[in-house]
Amino acid sequence: MATTHNLGFPRIGAKRELKFALESYWKGQSSRDELKALGAQLRQRHWDNQAALDLVPVGDFAFYDQVLDMSFTLGNLPERVRGFHGDALDNYFRVARGRSAEGTENQGACCGGVAAGEMTKWFDTNYHYIVPEFSAATEFSLDSSRLLDQLAQARSLGVKAKLVIIGPVTYLWLGKAKDDSDKLALLPRLLPVYAKLLDELAAQGVEWVQIDEPALVTELDAAWQQAFVAAYQALKQDKVKLLLATYFGQLLENLPLALALPVQGLHLDAINARAEAEQAVAKLPAGKILSLGVINGRNIWKSDLSAVLDWLEPVHRQLGNRLWVAPSCSLLHVPVDLDSEQKLDADIRSWLAFALQKLDELQLVAKALNQGRDAVAGALADNQAAIASRRASPRVHNPAVKAAIARLDAALGRRASPYTQRAPKQAALLRLPAYPTTTIGSFPQTGDIRQARSKFRSGELDEAGYKAAMQAEIARSVREQEALGLDVLVHGEAERNDMVEYFGEQLDGYAFSQFGWVQSYGSRCVKPPILFGDISRPQAMTVAWIKYAQSLTAKPMKGMLTGPVTILNWSFVRDDQPRSVSCHQLALAIREEVLDLEKAGVRVIQIDEAALREGLPLRKSQWNEYLGWAVESFRITANGVQDETQIHTHMCYSEFNDIIASIADMDADVITIETSRSDMELLDAFDDFKYPNEIGPGVYDIHSPNIPTQEHIVQLMKKASERIPAERLWVNPDCGLKTRAWEEVIPALTNMVAAAQALRAMR
Ligand code: GLN
Ligand code: ZN
């Protein structure tokens, strides 16, 4: 018999109940007991949802983040929150977000909160975890209360529990030594705490513990590989069984290591590492369990269950009871329930599976393995019909788009002349001063804007009314920018709900869910659009708005677009063609928009690639392949314009040293980037690499309500001019201003413009 289990379940709730409960608690509008009760209720519901499985994850629930949970379990709290009042949950929120609930922070020495823990992306997902903090002095001590409480709750409900924790090596790998000491040196201090935890779990009668070690899918040097050996030797015991879980990729050189670790079971991601799963079957040490992740935990497509069974049946014959089946990774990364979707097109809906549907698929696979396909013949036939319908659907396949992709030619991605020849032509046309000022695109998304949009959606406001409301907002933005004295203006993006969704909604090949929320961090969720078919652009998407904005001013108006790589990386994408092909399709569609803007007389066009870096593969050895097609896609989009048209791009992440050559390769005339938070230190990248075109290093952090002073901006720009010739520098904020209020934006930009004037006067 094959055993079924799950690695983790989305905890935010099908209706985002956890989000709303957290935000209400933080605002002081509900009590800690109410929050805890909601947590217990969600866990119970989610265990009910998984009741058909042989083993159900317990310990995967977190109020904010599972890595932060592990830090508390290991007693690794940053010094700055020790000794605070309140219970552990308050301290937990302090580390997570700088403060606990309103009201709790005013009772003692700690009013005003503390610095929140740093957040970073969980492997190659869009989930962000709180980075564990270490120093050479870090000590660990066990606090098993969270796990034991959840276990007790599970027990009382009759849940067939498998405890889930993050493994010691990955835990260290995820963290950051604040004093630059060697994190690995902490392993000997960490292991006894894990050993004690396993003892306590054994004492509770726990049989299986899933110990997550996804660091095994990354490039590990000899010391880290050795750490795995040492850790699992130290944790070797026979009281609880360990299922070592890896996911998100191939193990490659780490596969033999993983197979040899003294644990009772190993989970492999058979979606991303199918060939390795087959090798593991052949090499599995006697007595060891092999868990195969056969249902994709990262996408929203139905699995081709007959194809899964075709390869899994022989594996099952070989392994028998030693085979477990599961989703490839925790279902944290997919929405909860397709049944909530009432508005999705019926065809498209029939091709999809969210978390609950993925568990049904898993159940079906296990039943077919254990009882034969005949036992699930009807369901298998339905599945096959859905797969066949998607494969053949004219909604998915557009011959004209496929033909355009077949005709792709490198010339599409090349400007007619190099930057050195384009720049003087652009300068002659735009007549900008030195240190030209601009912004990144969006202006405050006010309550009025959101209200107009929601009234338009509900039908309360007609199209003409909505258009007039948005035009009024655009006019306001233009007026304010003229008054501020900015040089290159933007229309402000009032009409855009989201920089990806806005374009997705106007492109053929995209669908949108109502409740397809996925946790991004803490209480924040995103609802990625679903790229299901060949992409085409039925009509111009932004031209009318930009033309309107341009009609209001004699200053140059920047056309504002989201680039193909960012649209791709923030969507659920197709699994029936390589990402590169979808990206090229997007590139051709956005290219048409660029050319239409140019035709409409727009002389400056910005193409945002905020998410270019996010798409980087986990392994550096695969970066070049990705960067190759990602940069090519941008170039296809941007580079069909005349020399006189100035192309800008914007990226809002900070670490670009290691991909600076690829960024230069995009050949945008101007790039604006985030640099202010590091005091321009990021520009160190330009010491070794001479960025050839113009650059706008962000001069203030738009995430903060603080107003930058003119002096500070001048000083930052001077620092920048040590690295980049002043005649190629722009002055702009770090990112778009849509999350700020006008009352913050006006003084900040006033100082920014004054700083640019001061810089000009100094020349
Ligand atoms: N143009 C977008 C804006 O200004 C860019 C946002 C981003 O980089 N994330 O909002
Ligand atoms: Zn940005």
TrEMBL record:
The residues that the entry says bind L-methionine are 440-442, 493, 608
> What are the residue boundaries of the Cobalamin-independent methionine synthase MetE C-terminal/archaeal domain, all occurrences included?
436-757
Positions annotated to bind 5-methyltetrahydropteroyltri-L-glutamate = 16-19, 121, 524-525, 570, 614
For this chain's record, the cofactor binding note is: Binds 1 zinc ion per subunit.
| Top EC group | transferase
Q: Which GO terms describe its molecular function?
A: 5-methyltetrahydropteroyltriglutamate-homocysteine S-methyltransferase activity
| GO BP terms | methylation
Q: Which EC number applies?
A: 2.1.1.14
* Keywords annotated in UniProt: Amino-acid biosynthesis, Metal-binding, Methionine biosynthesis, Methyltransferase, Repeat, Transferase, Zinc
Instruction: Give binding positions for Zn(2+).
Output: 650, 652, 674, 735
All copies of the Cobalamin-independent methionine synthase MetE N-terminal domain together span 4-318
Q: Which domain of life is it from?
A: Bacteria
List all membrane-crossing ranges: none
Q: Which InterPro entries match?
A: Cbl-indep_Met_Synth_N (IPR013215), Cobalamin-indep_Met_synthase (IPR006276), Met_Synth_C/arc (IPR002629), UROD/MetE-like_sf (IPR038071)
Function of the protein: Catalyzes the transfer of a methyl group from 5-methyltetrahydrofolate to homocysteine resulting in methionine formation.
Q: Which HAMAP family match?
A: Meth_synth (MF_00172)
Please report the name of this protein according to its UniProt entry: 5-methyltetrahydropteroyltriglutamate--homocysteine methyltransferase
Q: Which organism is it from?
A: Cupriavidus basilensis
Name of the gene: metE
